[in-house]
């Protein structure tokens, strides 16, 4: 393929794949849909259908749950289709899909790490209350993903399959492995920041409960969240069993108060939510995207610059949730901020704990229901049709997913806001505020304990032979105290953040040093 054609095709490919993080997560870059699209451009729709469907089936169980970055199905399907059509060999495109997907894994890791720089630049802009710069830095994440995908796609398309194989083979294992280890450590910084916000010294026991439930009973974040909710509700019920704190329907209806947030503000937040993952990174995930979506609400509520800056800081902490269900948290946060602006007893800790408590179960719903179930069902149906040469295969896949994207985000914003208003109204007119703060913190602490197990990854590789038997150090640690290293690292990071507010900068460097050095010396 000529250089001009390669550049134009690479631009299209980069724009297509960037949707996975940069704008909307519309599923248009999935192999089942992107394959035929590339085939249409290159004049061979049937090969696009076959390769796209085949790669979709290959990667159907490989999903980026939480912060994991598995072999990328999108790039694998698109570049594999290009190779298949260029070489006139469907089998070639399909066979190259896996190495392409593995190499793409590192490209996405690179983009996530570059975004850490943007997030830290945005921290300074937030302190200045510079909204335009904050927005510009966040949206710059789209360009990061675009250029990473464009350059890699151009090199892969122009130089062909030989280039992909040579790069994949030539990359030193200690560098690629070290970056992967560092990526597993960086979430510990975000976990430590959450512990700092939610009064770890007072509620550490619930953090431990969440950790133990995930380690020893292997419960996921959703299960731990539900248990946390049950524990918090039980404690509240016991404490208030002699008091009737409920409000009558008339009380709730008559105490909604004046609304500060207008419907157009919620629509603006809805539109911005499609760009929430533009600066996704290993340290705070989509914290800046959450802030970006909240800007219209915060500007409406806080005309005082200092209050506005404080509000921006509140929503710039670690946040990780499926982008479709994250809008519920946005809606509830808008309601909380509105009541805080009106003078209600809503503290920073209340908002932080509520967000943390909600993101656990909502992440579980998004990942398990939307990704692992909803998308997979329609992908399987669409792939079956596409393999038979039916052009409706991609349509069967894309239409339900686009509708799910649009509707779930809309309901999340508007229902979340409505629910939040009612919740805070009841709290404001009763003595439930203290119980709510405590309950949210309990759930948040348990969720954080569970997330340490699920997000922070580090394993020792040291082993030796004793009495003719191989002894693996990591196995010994797991037998004594599973996930001990992730726990220790998170708590050490927490202590560092308590002692030094700027510790976050060198903690990030520590993660990379540990990863690269550990892999180079064969320790990790």
Would you mind describing this structure in some detail?
The structure is a single chain. The two termini are 42 Å apart. A hairpin with a 2-residue loop joins β1 and β2. About 2% of the residues have low confidence. It is built from 23 helices and 2 strands. Helices cover 75% and strands 2% of the residues. It has a two-stranded antiparallel sheet. It has 524 residues and is mainly α. α14 runs antiparallel to α15. It comes from Tetragenococcus solitarius. It is found in: Cell membrane. Keywords: Cell membrane, Membrane, Phosphotransferase system, Sugar transport, Transmembrane, Transmembrane helix, Transport.
C-alpha Rg (nearest Å): 24 Å
Shape: globular
Summing up helix and strand content along with how strands pair, one would put the structural category as mainly alpha
What profile does the largest beta sheet have? 2 strands, antiparallel
Low-confidence stretches: 245-256
- Could you report the average pLDDT, rounded to the nearest whole number? 81
Estimate what percentage of residues fall within beta strands: under 5%
Transmembrane segments: 96-118, 139-159, 171-195, 207-238, 369-388, 395-416, 436-456, 476-497, 503-522
Subcellular location: Cell membrane
Protein name: PTS mannose/fructose/sorbose family IID subunit
InterPro entries: GatZ_KbaZ_carbometab (IPR050303), PTS_IIC_man (IPR004700), PTS_IID_man (IPR004704)
């Amino acid at each position: 393929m000529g250089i001009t054609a390669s550049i134009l095709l690479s631009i299209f490919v980069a724009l297509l794949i960037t949707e996975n993080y940069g704008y909307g997560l519309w599923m248009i870059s999935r192999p089942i849909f992107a394959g035929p699209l590339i085939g249409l451009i290159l004049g061979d729709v049937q090969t696009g259908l076959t390769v796209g469907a085949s790669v979709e089936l290959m990667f159907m169980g490989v999903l980026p749950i939480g912060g994991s970055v598995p072999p990328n199905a999108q790039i694998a399907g698109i570049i594999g289709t290009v190779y298949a059509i260029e070489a006139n060999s469907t089998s070639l495109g399909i066979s190259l899909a896996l190495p392409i997907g593995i190499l793409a894994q590192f490209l996405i890791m690179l983009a996530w790490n570059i975004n850490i720089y943007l997030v830290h630049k945005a921290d300074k802009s937030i302190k200045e209350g510079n909204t335009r710069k904050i927005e510009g830095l966040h949206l710059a994440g789209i360009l990061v993903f675009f250029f990473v995908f464009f350059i890699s796609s151009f090199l892969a398309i122009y130089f062909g399959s030989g280039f992909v194989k040579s790069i994949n083979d030539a990359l030193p294992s200690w560098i690629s492995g070290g970056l992967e280890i560092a990526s597993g450590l960086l979430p510990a910084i975000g976990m430590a920041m959450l512990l700092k916000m939610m009064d770890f010294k007072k509620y550490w026991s619930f953090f431990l409960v969440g950790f133990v439930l995930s380690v020893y009973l292997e419960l996921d974040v959703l299960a731990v969240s539900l248990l946390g909710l049950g524990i918090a509700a039980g404690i509240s019920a016991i404490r208030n069993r002699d008091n009737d704190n409920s409000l009558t329907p008339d009380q709730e209806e008559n105490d909604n108060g004046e609304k500060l947030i207008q419907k157009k503000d919620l629509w603006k937040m809805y539109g911005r939510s499609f760009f929430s993952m533009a600066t996704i990174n290993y340290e705070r995930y989509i914290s800046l995207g959450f802030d970006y979506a909240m800007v219209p609400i915060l500007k409406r509520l806080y005309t005082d610059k200092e209050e506005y800056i404080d509000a921006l800081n509140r929503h710039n902490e670690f946040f990780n949730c499926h982008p479709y269900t994250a809008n519920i948290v946005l809606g509830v946060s808008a309601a909380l901020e509105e009541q805080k602006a009106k003078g209600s007893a809503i503290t920073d800790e209340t908002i932080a704990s509520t967000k943390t408590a909600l993101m656990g179960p909502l992440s579980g719903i998004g990942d398990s229901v939307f990704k692992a179930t909803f998308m997979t069902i329609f992908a399987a149906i669409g792939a079956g049709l596409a393999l038979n040469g039916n052009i409706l295969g991609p349509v069967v896949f894309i239409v339900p997913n686009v509708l799910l994207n649009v509707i779930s985000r809309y309901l999340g914003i508007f229902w979340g806001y409505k629910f939040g208003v009612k919740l805070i109204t009841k709290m404001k007119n009763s003595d439930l505020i203290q119980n709510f703060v405590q309950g949210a913190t309990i759930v948040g602490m348990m969720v954080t304990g569970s997330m340490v197990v699920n997000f922070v990854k580090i394993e020792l590789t040291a082993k030796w032979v004793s009495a003719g038997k191989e002894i693996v150090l990591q196995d010994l640690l797991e037998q004594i105290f599973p996930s001990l290293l992730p726990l220790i690292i998170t708590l050490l990071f927490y202590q560092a953040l308590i002692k030094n507010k700027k510790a976050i900068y060198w903690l990030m460097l520590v993660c990379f040093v540990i990863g690269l050095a550990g892999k180079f010396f064969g320790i990790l």
